[in-house]
Amino acid sequence: MTRFTVNGQPIRYLLDPETPLLWALRDASNLTGTKYGCGAGLCGACTVHVDGNAVRSCQVAIGTLEGSFVTTIEALSRDRGHPVQQAWIAEAVPQCGYCQSGMIMAAAALLSRNGNPSDADIDAAITNICRCGTYPRIRRAIRAAAAVAAGRLTLEGGPAPGIDPADAARAVPAMTVARPPE
Length: 182
Prior knowledge:
iron-sulfur; iron; single chain; metal ion binding; 31% helix
């Protein structure tokens, strides 16, 4: 049995300890904002925060996370008001959108450590792959998010339309997730 905190809620997974975090989140906890991309830790679509650090969830076994705190895109901010999310919208970063949750999580982790990253810092921290090639917009959004967080910039507008933020950021109740019957 593996116990750790996901999006502020204690979770006990009754899954094989070697189960990748990605699949525990997506299949057992129904937190589908974390995407499967390559399964090899190369693309970054599955990036989440573990104890505040950006990690590729396809490469982390849940058995190694005992006592850890995991944050997914669903809980980055309950109202989509995180500076990175605001800047992503303001800079029109999304194109196909598939890589976005992983990119946003990687950028948020970078900015939590470095409030004024250089282009070299951004390049070193954001190794996620965007198949649409929106890298210039991603870099502008990260710079804008840093300015918002520092109070040097205010972005107009609210959360993007679509899913109600309360629904997107629903709290995962404390639960036990069992292995499916064989």
